[in-house]
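Is pyridoxal-5'-phosphate placement plausible here? Inputs below.
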Amino acid sequence: MRRIYLDYNATTPADPSVIDAMLPFFDERFGNPGSAHALGREAAEAIARARSQVAALVVCAFEDVYFTGCATEANNLVLFGRAAASDWRGHIVVSAVEHPSVREPARVLANRGIDVTVLPVDETGLADPDDLARAIRPDTIVVSIMHANNETGTIQPVAELAAVCRERDIPFHSDCSQSAGKIPVDLSAWGADFATFAGHKVYVPKGIGVLARRTETPLVPMLHGGGPGTRSARRHRERAVHRRDRARIRARGGIDAQRARSLASAERPAAHGARRGGRRIERSSGAAVAEHAQHFVSGSRRRRHPCKGARSSCGNRRGLP
Ligand SMILES: Cc1ncc(COP(=O)(O)O)c(C=O)c1O
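Reply from A.M.:
I modeled the complex. Tokens:
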């Protein structure tokens, strides 16, 4: 019997060109990107190239493409990362039609004391920017509204929703798992701060997601000790590869002209929340982890963290990460 697969919004097969590009890294070019030797450098260069390509696709700065294991992880990272960066206080807005990978972390955060507003949608599944403007509060730490819905296909007016947030200096995230690769996704044009992507929806094998961050909005990582960055290591070497690739894209006339122009100007705009004293990702997390590590290495069996309740560089005011 011949099978016809019609469920491409659930997942796609890996494209042969993607498999070809990946295969050498399973055996011949298997280096650890953190290693200083040639094999390691090759792996780091390959990651940098992939990061560059994602940045070009979604129009954000190269530095702010975080590879994750899936879109679910990216969505969790943005909600928990914002909550941690805001000392586990504040208010979150999510739409009523988000994927469970946004709804569930929001519910867990609500149980931990964060206020959550679920923004209603109309009969076609659309969120109204005026409703969003009414829902936002001065202590809103992130608004998360998906680009395209996985069940209805409704496409949200993300540029308008992001504009509402931008006017009020509130970070805006959009889950673009269902839209990337099908319709244009342009974080710079929207003025969005974060966006999520799922590799397996666009002919990439399972196990690869992305959280893109366009601005320097603080986000505390969920994984510690793996290298600098929110999810995975980013190295200076990668930047050189990125600069080369960006020059090549420009020389070729771009991915398309407008996108290349946006990309060229996709600097990292200032952080939301800078005025509210939010912490930057890498520097603060390094300090926090060092302090946590010291606490545990010293053999203390106390459940209570020494910094709990205190304002310290550790940043841990409500328990351990
Ligand atoms: C809109 C949306 N967000 C997130 C996800 C989760 O993707 P992943 O399987 O990569 O965790 C899906 C998957 O179906 C989705 O459709």
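Short version: Strands lie at 65-68, 91-95, 115-119, 140-144, 172-175, 194-198, 209-213.
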